[in-house]
Each structure stands twice: as structure tokens, then as C-alpha cells.
Design goal:
Layout lengths: L5 H18 L15 H15 L3 E7 L3 H7 L5 E6 L3 E3 L5 E4 L8 E10 L9 H6 L1 E11 L12 H6 L4 E6 L15 E6 L2 E7 L8 H13 L10 E6 L4 E2 L5 E5 L5 E6 L1
Parallel strand pairs: 1-10, 3-7, 4-13
Antiparallel strand pairs: 1-2, 5-6, 5-10, 5-11, 6-7, 8-9, 8-12, 12-13
Helix pairs in contact: 1-2
């Protein structure tokens, strides 16, 4: 994808990615004519994806924030995508959410800490300023899915960035003030599938200093594109437990301790 062709190539990449998702027909890779070759082109393709989707952005998702995730998809650092109102759902305490398995090319379950902002976050903010910008912390589950289907771990970070960072759907539990949870580094989360434990982890799984440091990374990354995390937006900060792929009929539960539980059944 040459620099002069970038706008048209970005739109073509977005069209192919959305078509693959909507038709449930995975791409093996983007054609070379519109495959991003650097971060600027990948970002342009993602912005074209967001615009062409017709969906309403409500915040940001971070990917590749843990060593486990980086190794699984062959990247060496985090990247970001967009959360949408239409693919997100608030889940009340004690409720089991239900999603249609067939709405996704695959369903990778990732328990994460989500942060709702009460103030815009400028790049270069101190750790205290980052914490002060957070209104609430929430238990969350991201359902990772991608236009590349089973090949998604092979296409690389640039193509995944274009594909809205492989975001599928998002579940958000009730929030609580961050002040009661500190930096979340020691807060443990446990994941189970059909009642069988899969594994657990803490906020320390988010490399570079935990979920709040990931939020600071996002502010710096968005600044390069003339954007910043805004008051009212949600940011989900990356998986903290082992992740697991699930199929129709299975039920998952993420236990965030005193922060609450999230349960999901794949119909």
C-alpha cells in the first residue's frame, strides 16, 4: 500500500474486513494492494473501518497488553481499537448475558478491567493524573473475533489493527469508584467455563504497570492521531487471565472478587 494510494487502500481494506465479518466468511489475509505496511496505514484502515461500520463509538479497547497475548498473536507491544455501543452490553449484578455464537467467526473470551473516564486524559499525564481521570472501574469481558477467522494469529499486528484490533463484543459489569481498588495490580480475576476453572491472573498481567499504565499508554498513542481519551468514554485495558475460545452452548464466568462477577452464555 503506497502512501499516495493510502486513502483508497484504507477504504478497500475496511470494505473487505467488514464484508468478511458480516458474511461470516473469513479472509486469509488482506490483498497486498490494501494491506497496511506501517502503523500510519493500519490506523487509516481502522478509521475507515469505524466510519464504514455505521456503529457509534463509545470508547477504546486495548490489545496486546500482556506477554501472553503478545506471544499468541505475534506482536511486541499493545495496539488499540474502538468499542461500539451496538456491540456492547451492560450486565446487571447476578445476570447471565447471552450472545449468539453464530454472530462471530470465533469467540475468544478475555476478562479485563474496564475504566470509565470522568475527565479527558492528556498525553504524558502523571500516574496520579491518570487515576484522577477515572470515574469507575468495572469487571468486563471482551469477546475477541476477527475478519481473519482462524488465521487471525498469523496476519500480524498491522492487519489486526486495521480489523479494529480484533474486537467482537463487550460486556460491562457495574462499576465502583477506583479509589477503593488502587492500581489493580494485585486484584485477582478467575475464569471458568461450564463451571470448570480455566485459570486466573491479576492486573499485573497488563505489562508496563497495570491497567492504569495501559490507559496512560493509550493517551500517548492517540495523541499521534490528534485524539485523546475523553470524559464519559470506556477503556478496556487487556486480558488478565488465560484466554479461552468457546462455542455455542458453553457458559463462562469471570469472578472479579469484590468487584463482582460476569457470566455469559453462548446461545
Amino acid at each position: 500500500m503506497t502512501e499516495t494510494a493510502a486513502p483508497a487502500a484504507a477504504e478497500e481494506a475496511a470494505r473487505l474486513l467488514l464484508q468478511a465479518r458480516r458474511s461470516r466468511t473469513p479472509l486469509s489475509a488482506l490483498p497486498r494492494s490494501c494491506r497496511p505496511e506501517d502503523a500510519t496505514q493500519a490506523w487509516a484502515a481502522q478509521r475507515a473501518f469505524v466510519a464504514a461500520s455505521g456503529l457509534r463509538p463509545i470508547g477504546w479497547k486495548l490489545a496486546g497488553t500482556s506477554r501472553r497475548a503478545q506471544q499468541a498473536i505475534g506482536v511486541d507491544g499493545p495496539f488499540a481499537g474502538v468499542l461500539f455501543a451496538e456491540t456492547s452490553r451492560d450486565v446487571a449484578a447476578g445476570e447471565t448475558a447471552s450472545l449468539r455464537a453464530d454472530d462471530f467467526l470465533f469467540r475468544l473470551i478475555e476478562p479485563e478491567f474496564a475504566l470509565r473516564l470522568k475527565a479527558d486524559l492528556a498525553p504524558g499525564a502523571t500516574p496520579q493524573a491518570v487515576a484522577d481521570a477515572v470515574e469507575s472501574v468495572h469487571p468486563a469481558i471482551e469477546i475477541v473475533s476477527s475478519a481473519f477467522g482462524a488465521r487471525w494469529t498469523e496476519v500480524g499486528g498491522l492487519s489486526l489493527t486495521a480489523d479494529n484490533a480484533a474486537h467482537g463484543a463487550f460486556l460491562l459489569g457495574p462499576g465502583q469508584p477506583l479509589a477503593g481498588y488502587g492500581d489493580l495490580l494485585d486484584h485477582r480475576v478467575t475464569l471458568a467455563v461450564d463451571g470448570e476453572p480455566v485459570g486466573s491472573g491479576t492486573g499485573a498481567a497488563v505489562e508496563g504497570g497495570g491497567p492504569l499504565a495501559a490507559l496512560a499508554w493509550l493517551a500517548n498513542a492517540l495523541e499521534r492521531h490528534g485524539l485523546r481519551p475523553r470524559a464519559g468514554e470506556l477503556v478496556t485495558t487487556g486480558v488478565v487471565t488465560p484466554f479461552v475460545e468457546v462455542v455455542a452452548g458453553q457458559q463462562v464466568e469471570a469472578d472479579f472478587g469484590r468487584l463482582g462477577r460476569l457470566a455469559l452464555r453462548l446461545a
